[in-house]
Design a protein that fits this description.
- The chain is of the alpha+beta class.
- It has two domains: about 70 residues; about 130 residues, 4-Layer Sandwich (Deoxyribonuclease I, Chain A).
- It has four helices and 14 strands.
- A six-stranded mixed beta sheet has the order 4-5-3-2-1-14, with helices on one face.
- β2, α1 and β3 form a beta-alpha-beta unit.
- This is Endonuclease/exonuclease/phosphatase domain-containing protein.
- It comes from Photinus pyralis.
- One of its GO terms (molecular function) is catalytic activity.
Length: about 230
């Protein structure tokens, strides 16, 4: 869970609350987990789902929640993947339509929250574990995000690095770390464990929460220990 303070104490915000509660969940198939999703939505403002496994044939009526707008970016070919934002209806936002695509199999989706003192973007990523980006591809992504103002960048990076509590460092993790330093991003969950490999009995930290420096001080976070079947 991530809390974002949306007020700078010097202006009147058009949101009724000054703190947005947001959850990132790598749900690994959203349709059979709709009861869990409904329960989550009772106490939060924005839910970001990765690996929704929804497809273009999934009707809106099959994935609909009262009081929330659903923004989906489904995988158009093959199975798996997919990103969705579930946003409480009192929150004004625009969908970001010009996100970079440094790799054809990399999935990105984003929104910008507009009815608060400090408008900011929330961008989610899903990088499949068998997709590997070169340094220049990671750089093109972070460079673009760094140029778009206040940004929260979160999702399933599938990038391992001992710096953020993984048991190994791979090429994607090394490139991501280089980009954090080069483009001045803050990683908030350095010491958490966000992924459980039940088959191997191993924990890792590949679901990450980054932000630009100018919004970092407004963010608090925690990791729920209940995997909820994902």
């Amino acid at each position: 869970m991530c809390n974002v303070n949306t007020s700078d104490n010097s202006h009147t915000t058009s949101l009724k609350q000054s703190c947005l509660k947001m959850v990132l969940w790598n749900c690994r198939s959203a349709i059979p987990k709709q009861e869990d999703i409904s329960n989550l939505l009772m106490s939060i403002d924005i839910l970001v789902l990765t690996e929704t496994w929804l497809s273009v044939t999934t009707q809106c009526t099959q994935f609909n929640f009262p009081g929330f707008l659903v923004i989906r970016d489904d995988r158009t070919t093959g199975r798996g993947g997919g990103i969705a934002f579930l946003i409480r209806k009192n929150i004004a936002f625009v969908k970001l339509t010009k996100l970079p695509k440094p790799h054809r199999s990399l999935e990105l989706s984003g929104i910008q929250i507009t009815n608060c003192d400090q408008p900011f973007s929330i961008i989610s990523i899903y990088k499949p574990p068998d997709v590997h980006l070169q340094l220049y591809q990671w750089e093109s992504l972070f460079q673009h995000l760094n140029s778009t103002g206040k940004v929260i960048f979160l999702g399933d990076f599938n990038a391992h690095n001992i710096v953020w509590n993984c048991d190994k460092t791979d090429a994607d993790g090394s490139c991501t770390l280089d980009c954090i330093y080069k483009y001045n991003f803050i990683l908030h969950n350095l010491d958490t464990k966000t992924h459980i490999d039940f088959r191997m009995g191993k924990y890792s930290n590949i679901d990450l929460l980054f932000s630009t420096v100018d919004v970092a001080q407004n963010i608090t976070h925690r990791v729920d220990t209940d995997p909820m079947g994902s």
